[in-house]
Amino acid sequence: MNDRVYVLLDVIDGKSTEVVHTLIGKGGVISADVLDDPCSVVMVVEAGERKQLAALTVQAIASVDSLTRGLRLLPVQNDEGLAPIGINMGSSTRRHAFSGKKEATE
Fold first, then answer.
1. Distance separating alpha carbons of residues 75 and 57, to the nearest angstrom
2. Is 56 helix (H, G, I), strand (E, B) or coil?
3. Mean per-residue pLDDT for 6-24?
4. Which of 24, 25, 48, 67 is the 20 to 30 A CA-CA neighbour of 17?
């Protein structure tokens, strides 16, 4: 079973449709939709393993110029259990994908 993460993105007002079109062509992105809130987009990223999922998710997010600071990762549990994904949020910290807490990196 493939690993999957839902990503909620806050985008600049009026740019949601443009963001969806950008995301749909990215590797691993199986779905991207504008939510009822005009400044929000949800995308679904899927990959065969967690490391690949993390890399594809970061690549897709980095491809969008219209993001505000809001970003929420919602990983889906597969049959093998849920393993955390560390997303690099800068040079010295990362955010834990489940708790959102910052962790020091080496």
1. 11
2. helix
3. 92
4. 48
Q: How many domains does the chain have?
A: 1
Report the CATH number at residue 61: 3.30.70.920
Q: pLDDT digits over 50-88, tens only?
A: 899 999 999 999 999 888 878 898 888 766 555 555 554
Nearest Cα residue to 15 out of 43, 42, 34: 34
For tokens 């959102």, the residue is: 100
**How many residues in total does the chain contain?**
106
Per the structure, the complete domain to which residue 71 belongs is given by: 3-104
- Strands, DSSP E only, in the chain? 3-11, 29-34, 40-47, 67-76, 86-88, 93-96, 102-104
**pTM score, two decimals?**
0.70
| Distance of alpha carbon 73 from alpha carbon 19, whole angstroms | 17
CB 70 within 8 A of CB 16: no
